[in-house]
Amino acid sequence: MKSVEMPSSLTVKELAEMLNKTPVEIIKQLMRSGVMANVNQVLDHDMASATALALGYEVKPSSPSESPSVRSKAEGDNLSPRPPVVTVMGHVDHGKTTLLDHIRKTNIASREVGGITQHIGAYQVEIDGNKITFIDTPGHEAFTQMRARGAKITDIVVLVVAADDGVMPQTIEAIDHARLAQVPIMVAINKMDKPDADPDRVKRELSEQGLVIEEWGGDVMCTPISAKKGEGISDLLESILVLAEVLELKADLKVLARGVAIEGGVDKLRGPVATLLIQEGELKVGDTIVCGGSWGRIKAMLNDQGKRVKRAGPATPVEILGLDSPPQAGDAFSMVKDEKEARLKSQKKGKEFPRTQVITSPEVKDLNIVLKTDVEGSIEPIKSSLEELSNDKVLLRVIYARSGIITEGDILLARASNGMIVGFNTSYGTGTKKLAEREGVDTHLSEVIYKLMDEMGMVIQGMLEPEFVDVVDGIGEVREVFSSAKGKKVAGVYVLEGSLKRGVRVRVMREGEEICESTIVSLRRFKDDVREVETGFECGVGIRDFSEFKVGDRIKSHVRRKKDESTYQEAGITVPRNDKRPSHS
Ligand code: GDP
Questions:
Q1: C-beta separation of 418 from 357 below 8 A
Q2: Which residue has the higher pLDDT, 454 or 566?
Q3: Ligand 1: does its nearest atom lie under 6 Å from the Cβ of 137?
């Protein structure tokens, strides 16, 4: 038996190299033991050792000096402890809001006479000198929506379960969402004041979901509370601090400030406002930041009690003024040197909203699947058939599987994991089909197994050979050239084919040659701004960084499509078909 020396942690890729295997082999082995991992995932010593053992290796522990975690500690000299960031989740009406309100009222971090508490999307409380940051939007939808935008802000999930109602569907969804995000869960059994409270039932039902509380030999902390009466809440807060201690949460104070926007909006008097949660560094009034597609110099900063502050450190929520436009919840922000860098970065970022379905790595592409089936019994066979479609280039992983209709949570989960929805004998819940389209999540539903597998086979083919083509979407002809108020030139255009839309990429063609490639930035019919102008109509067109229109120029708008997409759309499939397959036409 070959033997290997295992460090205290390493990535899947590193383990594969060490064992002379492909990353796919490692991931498959991990899957067999119920662990979903990707190529860059970090495995701890135990998990890596177990995998190596299962693949026929003997494992020797490594000398401590070589362990990567020791190295990283040495590098992390600037790290200071920071407060935990907590999200409250649970079934509707189990008391999440009541709990958050109670904690806020009794424990706000610094009490000032006459200080008003503001709802800015998060708040901080202080218990014996230790701070905890609570995200003020309870529920897993908001949590996963953030994650879908690439933000990971929560350190701990407090799962609220009503003692008189027990584990309910959204309790289970919340558990799943927290687990997929790899955020530790602790439980608050609420409504203990009710005569029909049955905490043992809750504990039993939780253990059926794999959440075994400490009292029963597991590792999940559990606190009985009454959010309404305020009982048990200080115990709960203490437990949060204990778990935070175990998690050793740290942040670097010396780096340029960065973090995530948790709310954004426009205030009639104050203009664009945003609540930011700082994750690293320190943010100060006067700093210039880029946040998603917005940027600006911070004019003022207010804490969760509406009090002006000059600076704020990690895990602190602040409301800021000074951005040029409101960011979206989940947008990352970072501090930049000056306005020039800010403009540049914000332009880029605005366009870079990730919408990919495939996480690419040089070796393997991951295809994450959220599976919904009609009944529990169909999950296992469909899951394994799907996973068997994996080959050495594409790895299909069912990251989540449940029976029932497709919910908003499912779509967001697929979005958050860059995945797609597969449904067997199930249907869309209200509004979820639209949501999937809006979020760019592919869905594949069928009532026939072999059809579903066929389709998924095609998806994999599509992933192997992604072929994109530029398709002309509309053509307009310049008939007149005007000067706009700001001295810019605007073209009077007649739409010959298709339509022209604001925001789309266009090429300006003169005598068959391309003279400019840019974007339609303004589109007008008479004096009105419009989004789209159809064939046969006239309009005014302004193009970014281009003014040299001449009568007779053609403006062609383009969209990027996967090759042959139209054929698949007819078949209800949104991916390229393998050309070798027989066509149904
Ligand atoms: P959410 O939907 O999870 O945010 O639940 P809410 O906080 O809105 O609470 C739902 C209902 O349960 C409200 O009528 C609350 O007053 C009530 N409630 C919340 N916590 C408790 C509790 O500890 N005891 C009792 N008896 N009622 C509670």
A1: yes
A2: 454
A3: no
Beta strands in 502-569 (DSSP E): 505-510, 513-525, 528-529, 532-534, 538-543, 554-562
166: left (phi over 0), alpha (psi -120 to 50) or beta: left
Q: Give the helix/strand (H/E) hosting 91.
A: none
Which residue's C-alpha comes closest to atom 24 of ligand 1? Answer: 191
Q: 194 in ligand 1 pocket by Cβ < 6 Å?
A: yes
Q: Is 164 in the pocket of ligand 1 (CB under 6 A)?
A: no
Burial class (CB in 10 A: 0-12, 13-18, 19+), 271: middle
- In this structure, of 28-37, 181-190, 347-356, 423-432, the range with the lowest mean pLDDT score is 347-356
The answer to whether the CB of 240 falls within 8 A of the CB of 132 is yes
pTM for this entry: 0.61
As a whole number, the mean pLDDT across the chain is 83
At 2, the pLDDT band (50, 70, 90 cuts) reads confident
Find the 227 Cα to ligand 1 centroid distance in Å.
Answer: 7
Cα–Cα nearest to 544, from 524, 564, 522: 522
**Structure-token pair, residue 384:** 């394994």
Distance CA 51, CA 215 (A): 30
Residues 182-194 pLDDT 10s: 899 999 999 999 9
SS3 category, 392: coil
Query: Residue length, the chain?
Result: 585
CA of 473 to the centre of ligand 1 (A): 53
Residue with tokens 């060490």: 18
Distance (angstroms) between ligand 1 centre and the Cα of 409 equals: 22
The reply to whether ligand 1 has any atom less than 6 angstroms from the CB of 193 is yes
Residue nearest to atom 10 of ligand 1 (CA): 93
- Residues with Cβ within 8 Å of residue 380, at least 6 apart in sequence: none
Q: Return d(Cα 189, Cα 361) in angstroms, integer.
A: 43
d(CA 158, CA 365): 34
- Centre of ligand 1 to C-alpha 98, Å, is 6
CA–CA dist 104, 88 (Å, integer): 13
Give the residues across from 406 on adjacent strands.
428
Residue pair 364/379 in contact (Cβ under 8 Å)? The answer is no
